C-alpha cells in the first residue's frame, strides 16, 4: 500500500462556514469575538434575549449555539427556562459544554450536533428560538427559516442576530474599514488561518435588512422588527411564525 503524501491540491478543505471550518478556531473563538466586536457582542446578545419575551418555564432553541454564549445568557436571565443548543461544529460544542458545566447550568442547557436546515424536533416545540451570528453561514437559508417557523409555537418569537455591513451614514466608511481590514487581520493574527477572511467576505455578502426581512416573510416568519445595532454593524430581526402582516 502506498504511503506517498497526498498532494496539497488534492486535500479537501472544509467548506467556508461549515462546522469543520469552525472546529479549527473553536479554542479561540470567544476571545476573537470580543476583540473583533470591541466587546459589544455581549450587549447585542442581551438585546436578543430580551427580544424573545419568554414566558415562565419556557423551552428555547438556540441554533448555531457555538460555544453556548447565548444559551448560557438565556439560562442566566430565565432560570426556569430549558435551552436546547444545536450547532454543526463538534469542537465548538466541546468548548460550550465545558462552559455549561462551569456555570452549573447542566440541568438547564443541553447541547447537541445538528444543522439549522434539518431540525430533529416536532412541530411547535419551542416558546422561543434564537440564532446569533449563524444564519450567515447557513447554505440553504430559506429552508432553515422554514424550519424555525415550524418548530416554534404560535405566538412564540424568533430572534436572529446577524452582522451586517453599513451602507450609509457618517460612520459607514469606518465600519466597512473595520470589517474589511481589522476583522481578517486580527482573526488571522490570533488564529493563524483564513477563517476570519471568510467572516469579512460573508458579512459583505449578507443581504441588506430589507431583503433578508422579505426572505423571512416568504419562509413563514412574520417580521415584527428589524433593528440596526451599533450604527448598523449588526441587525436584530424579531419575528413570529405566520404570514407577513
Please provide a written account of the structure.
About 40% of the residues lie in helices and about 20% in strands. The chain has a domain at about 40-165 and about 205-240: Rossmann fold. A seven-stranded mixed sheet has the order 3-2-1-4-5-7-6, sandwiched between helices. It has about 240 residues and is of the alpha/beta class. The protein has helices at about 20-25, 30-35, 40-50, 70-75, 90-100, 140-150, 170-190, 195-205, 210-220; strands at about 60-65, 80-85, 110-115, 125-130, 150-165, 220-230, 235-240. Strand 4, helix 6 and strand 5 form a beta-alpha-beta unit.
Quick description:
With 245 residues, this protein is α/β, with parallel strands linked by helices.
List keywords for this structure.
245 residues, alpha/beta, Rossmann fold, seven-stranded mixed β-sheet, 7 strands, globular, disordered N terminus
Task: Present the secondary structure layout.
Elements: H1 19-23, H2 29-36, H3 41-52, E1 59-63, H4 69-77, E2 82-87, H5 90-102, E3 109-113, E4 126-132, H6 141-151, E5 152-163, H7 172-191, H8 195-205, H9 209-218, E6 221-229, E7 234-241
Parallel strand pairs: 1-2, 1-4, 2-3, 4-5
Antiparallel strand pairs: 5-7, 6-7
Amino acid at each position: 500500500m502506498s504511503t506517498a503524501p497526498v498532494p496539497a491540491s488534492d486535500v479537501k478543505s472544509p467548506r467556508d462556514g461549515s462546522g469543520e471550518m469552525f472546529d479549527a478556531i473553536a479554542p479561540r473563538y470567544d476571545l476573537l469575538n470580543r476583540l473583533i466586536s470591541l466587546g459589544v457582542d455581549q450587549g447585542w446578545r442581551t438585546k436578543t434575549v430580551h427580544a424573545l419575551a419568554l414566558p415562565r418555564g419556557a423551552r428555547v432553541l438556540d441554533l448555531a449555539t457555538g460555544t453556548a454564549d447565548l444559551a448560557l445568557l438565556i439560562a442566566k436571565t430565565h432560570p426556569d427556562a430549558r435551552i436546547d443548543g444545536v450547532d454543526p461544529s463538534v469542537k465548538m460544542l466541546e468548548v460550550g459544554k465545558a462552559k455549561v458545566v462551569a456555570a452549573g447550568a447542566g440541568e438547564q442547557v443541553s447541547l447537541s450536533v445538528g444543522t439549522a436546515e434539518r431540525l430533529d424536533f416536532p412541530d411547535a416545540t419551542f416558546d422561543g428560538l434564537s440564532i446569533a451570528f449563524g444564519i450567515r453561514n447557513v447554505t440553504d437559508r430559506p429552508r432553515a427559516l422554514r424550519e424555525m417557523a415550524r418548530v416554534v409555537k404560535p405566538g412564540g418569537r424568533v430572534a436572529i442576530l446577524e452582522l451586517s455591513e453599513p451602507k450609509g451614514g457618517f460612520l459607514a466608511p469606518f465600519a466597512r474599514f473595520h470589517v474589511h481590514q481589522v476583522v481578517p487581520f486580527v482573526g488571522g493574527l490570533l488564529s493563524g488561518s483564513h477563517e476570519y477572511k471568510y467572516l469579512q467576505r460573508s458579512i459583505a455578502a449578507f443581504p441588506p435588512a430589507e431583503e433578508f426581512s422579505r426572505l423571512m416573510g416568504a419562509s413563514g416568519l412574520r417580521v415584527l422588527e428589524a433593528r440596526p445595532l451599533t450604527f448598523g454593524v449588526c441587525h436584530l430581526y424579531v419575528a413570529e411564525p405566520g404570514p407577513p402582516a
